[in-house]
Amino acid sequence: MSKIHAVVLAAGQGTRMKSKLHKVLHPVCGKPMVQHVVDTLVAMQVEDIVVVVGHGADAVRAELGDGITYALQEKQLGTAHAVQQAEPFLLDKEGTTFLLYGDVPLLSAQTLTALRAYHEEQQAAATVLTAVLNDPTGYGRIVRDSAGEVLRIVEHKDASLQERAIKEINTGIYCFDNRKLWNALKEVKNENAQGEYYLTDCVSILRNQHEKVVGFAAADPDETMGINDRVQLADAEAYLRRRIALGHMRNGVTIIDPASTYIEADVTIGADTIIQPGSFLRGRTTIGSDCVIGPQADLTDVQVADQVSIAYAVLAEASVAANSTVGPFAYVRPGSEIGPGVKIGDFVELKNAKIGEGSKIPHLSYVGDAEIGKGVNIGCGTITVNYDGAVKHKTVVQDGAFVGCNSNLVAPVTVGKNAYVAAGSTINKDVPDDALAIARERQVNKLDYANRMPRKGKKQS
């Protein structure tokens, strides 16, 4: 097969979104819609990707970064004019060129690959990706000749009654022979009410040059959905979320209720993992095999190993090793590393904390800027006092140590190996290995003192 190139149009303002954010940067399943398009092309090993920018150009460049080429359309004079801005980068190339849109994020690599294969099989100058709709109102119709080739594309407002009965519509997505594309674009005129240069005119131009133009119908018309407003954005989100869930389920993941589970595009999940309802898996989260995630687990950029259980918990930019449990009602903040066989229980918060193998923090504790060794028990209500108002300090609890309930570890401080901290202690000095640290006031009992205290409901003499 020939080399592949692509032009992605992303210069439009998108006023119907009614947003300060450029239209193509609105996220669908956690990723800007134009990023979906570019990622699909990258996965297809497209040789040259040219993104045509205009409104919000700097923001689009900042989001997509390096590795692709940008062409600037300073004035929006139509789709053909937008494509022409990519000419300096592709004019002398051989091969097939896709013309795509940054606001059509649902096209799969499978559909584009099939489009390209058909285009090259037919040895066409241009191939239009079409869709067959039950209600094609408002869309340009595909008019074919007796041989089935595309004769022309007629807009709805210009279509006759017979043409309006056609249900095959133009999606605006094309494959072109690269050299023939640029030759055709030179012939496009702006002799219309809007004074713009339309890409659809290339079809009739190529036909007049006795070139072959064909149509390829998308198997799933919903893939060709363009996004122009918030309603369509929600429709695209629902479609892609369902497609993502189906992909995971077909790969051996159990999703109890896909309708109430939110999995973003770049999440990976191992086989025999169960995703419970109400869970959000975001960013580049990776989950191993044989895990139970949820109910109501919210994970963002988290690496989860095999056989992990996470329920009613929020985790971000953290890692959880094999055979560990997190939750319910735990909060694991960035920089935290939970080792194998660890228990992080209810109402525990971790921040930038490393928890060693087999350690337990069962409930009601804050462990921040800390390094907890292997086999450590952190009692209920323990706090690492890490912040002095200006600087964060580190707490170290070494292997085998036991920290009693309601203890304060005032950092910087180290609790040695196999040491004990008595319940209710405030530790501000290092505890040696194998030592018992008690740091609390001695209890004093004042006999009969309670009888002299005023009490509600008690008659005073």
TrEMBL record:
List, alphabetically, the SUPFAM superfamilies matched: Nucleotide-diphospho-sugar transferases, Trimeric LpxA-like enzymes
* Domain Nucleotidyl transferase: residue ranges: 6-216
Binding, Mg(2+): 103, 228
What's an example of a GO molecular-function annotation for this chain? UDP-N-acetylglucosamine diphosphorylase activity
Where is the catalytic site? 363 (proton acceptor)
> Quick one: which residues bind acetyl-CoA?
386-387, 423, 440
> Catalyzes what?
alpha-D-glucosamine 1-phosphate + acetyl-CoA = N-acetyl-alpha-D-glucosamine 1-phosphate + CoA + H(+); N-acetyl-alpha-D-glucosamine 1-phosphate + UTP + H(+) = UDP-N-acetyl-alpha-D-glucosamine + diphosphate
Renumbered residue ranges of the record's region N-acetyltransferase: 252-461
* HAMAP family documented for this protein: GlmU
Q: Mind telling me what this protein is named? A: Bifunctional protein GlmU
Question: In the record, what lineage is assigned to the organism producing the protein?
Answer: Bacteria, Bacillati, Bacillota, Bacilli, Bacillales
